[in-house]
Write a structure and sequence with these properties.
By secondary structure, the protein is of the alpha+beta class. It has 7 helices and 12 strands. Among the domains are: 104-211, Cupredoxins -  blue copper proteins (Immunoglobulin-like, Sandwich), CATH 2.60.40.420; 219-314, Cytochrome c-like domain (Cytochrome Bc1 Complex, Chain D, domain 2), CATH 1.10.760.
């Protein structure tokens, strides 16, 4: 089947599991459709006009009991099949919903009409994604303009990429090679040109490729420079004169808000804190932070987020 020209390649363990669910659903749907088609033909012939079939036979208690058993069977059997398939598909979904904690993070920005990607080491790519074989990879994605969709058919995964929000997608490639990358959400005039490739490399070859871009500072270092450039250190720095929440050890921890609720300080929270600072006010602090919307690009904001992540190690007792 894998050699069938219309059957897409598989390059991850998830792909085989997705295909299994798909083909079982296809077989079930085909069996039901075939059964209905056969019954239509049989009934059309048996009960055609002028046939000797008895249409007026009375049904006694025994026949009513038989009919009841049949009704129970054709009700409970599809229900059991449905719940079995639901549990199988839900298990597959939840297994893939949360990326592993040790996944390698790569930041992605969709923009008309290209993909820009950046590794934590600072190496950037355009319409290409280099990843190591056998290691979980987590993509942290956002859009600079309209809705895009990051689609990797060879891994059987796709995810909408939304302006002003962060979405994630993860996979573990289990086969080396070059594979197609698409935007599968119509995003404007040159949507069809918003394509690229994923290059799955042996771990040693990937490490060598990643080191080839070592001339660029890491994302955390670039974020630290932007943090100072935009004046963030004047309020959030160690020697700041303005009372503002400290960022050391912030990422990944709950934050108490002024309205009594709490949120986890993840990529979305940091993004909104910079772009929409009045949205979630930290308890005990005045709402004095200005908005940087329109001043900081999504690429720069990702560097700042990576810098805030790097401050986890600066908190007393914090672990990476």
């Amino acid at each position: 089947m894998l050699n069938f020209p219309l059957f897409p390649e598989r390059a991850s363990a998830l792909a085989a599991r997705v295909d299994s669910v798909f083909f079982v659903w296809l077989a079930l749907a085909g069996a039901v459709a075939l059964s209905v088609a056969v019954l239509i033909v049989v009934f059309a012939i048996r009960f055609r006009r002028g046939s000797p079939a008895d249409r007026n036979r009375e049904s006694g208690p025994a026949r009513r009991q038989k009919d009841r058993r049949m009704e129970i069977a054709w009700t409970l059997t599809p229900l059991a099949i449905f719940f079995t398939m639901f549990a199988w598909a839900a298990s597959l979904y939840y297994d893939h919903a949360a990326p592993p904690g040790d996944a390698m993070e790569i930041y992605v920005v969709g923009k008309q009409w290209m993909w820009t990607l950046q590794h934590a080491s600072g190496r950037r790519e355009i319409n290409e994604l280099h990843v190591p074989l056998g290691r979980p990879v987590k993509l942290v994605m956002t859009s600079q303009d309209v809705i895009h969709d990051f689609s990797l058919p060879v891994f059987r995964i796709k995810q909408d990429v939304l302006p002003g929000r962060y979405t994630t997608l993860w996979f573990t490639a289990d086969r080396q090679g070059d594979y197609h990358l698409f935007c599968s959400q119509y995003c404007g005039t040159d949507h069809s040109r918003m394509v690229g490739r994923v290059v799955v490399m042996a771990p040693a070859a990937f490490a060598e490729w990643l080191a080839g871009g070592s001339g660029s500072p890491t994302m955390a270092a670039q974020g630290a420079a932007l943090f100072r450039q935009y004046g963030c250190s004047g309020c959030h720095g160690a020697n700041a004169s303005v009372r503002a929440p400290k960022l050391e050890g912030l990422f990944g921890r709950p934050v108490q808000l002024a309205d009594g609720s709490s949120v986890i300080a993840d990529e979305r929270y940091i993004h909104d804190s910079v772009m929409l600072p009045a949205k979630e006010i930290v308890a005990g602090y005045a709402p004095i932070m200005p908005s940087f919307q329109g001043q900081i690009g999504e690429d720069e904001l990702q560097d700042i987020i990576e810098y805030v992540k790097s401050l986890r190690a600066a908190a007393p007792g914090a672990t990476r």
